[in-house]
Amino acid sequence: MNKTLIEQIGNTPLVKSMVLNTNPNVSLYFKLEGNNPGGSVKDRAAYSMIKNALDSGKINHKSKLIEATSGNTGIALAMIAGIFKLDIELVMPDSATKERVQTMKAYGAKVTLHSEGIEGSRDYAIAKVKNEGFYSFDQFANEDNWKAHYNTTGPEIWRDTRGEVTHFVSSMGTTGTIMGTSSFLKEQNKNIQIVGVQPTDGSSIPGIRKWPKEYLPKIFNASKVDRILEVSQDEAISMTRRLAKEEGIFAGMSSGGATTAALKLASELKSGVIVSIICDRGDRYLSSNLFE
Q1: Most-buried pick from 99, 113, 187, 193 (CB within 10 A)?
Q2: Which residues are annotated as modified residue N6-(pyridoxal phosphate)lysine in the UniProt record (predicted)?
């Protein structure tokens, strides 16, 4: 009782697939990260990055903060920066849904839209750090990103499956979720299979990337991922709609991508317990054509 908002981050529900998984010998569980206060898995990393930067003296209340984001990290950073009375500028692709932009502004952040996608947004933020004295959390290289999942997401999955998890499936963007969760789960049982999800060539799925080599997140360690499954944009859209209609899980397209991969995996296995990350909520995509 009497928990603060920050203390409500994490301990998200793990719910069993009742419809989409048709292999009776495999259990598929969805970890509902949209139940975090800011509506996505990124609350975990955002809190970890801000809290540790404050505690270590890297930033203070006079710092000018900036971060490039495709959406969810920005919302989480805006929410938590507001709680700590920090000023932050968030740079994102101009293709972002208006719900995302408006949510960040509601939390008090300055939002800058960039015409050259997430790569251009990252370059813009880096230039501000170099030339104008801004501080960037640089989620793509920040150890506190993946450590948030080592300290929370991984232990929750291990606890809630009573150590029976055999496969973990996660979309890959900054790769913080898969890096941290893999690190923890592999320490408990090295045989747990870690499956990353990427888009097929030419597919655009918000929150999932196949990075050009020069933009590959520095926190990414390929040895922590046992297998990568690729999903198409059409598959991700179709599965996102099915998640809502058939499982009652209202989520974004990256969750549809992860679910597509998890179901491919389930169809191959003779037995197992799969946990797949549902990254966020669907209400921040309503102005797009995702659910039309």
Answers
A1: 193
A2: 42
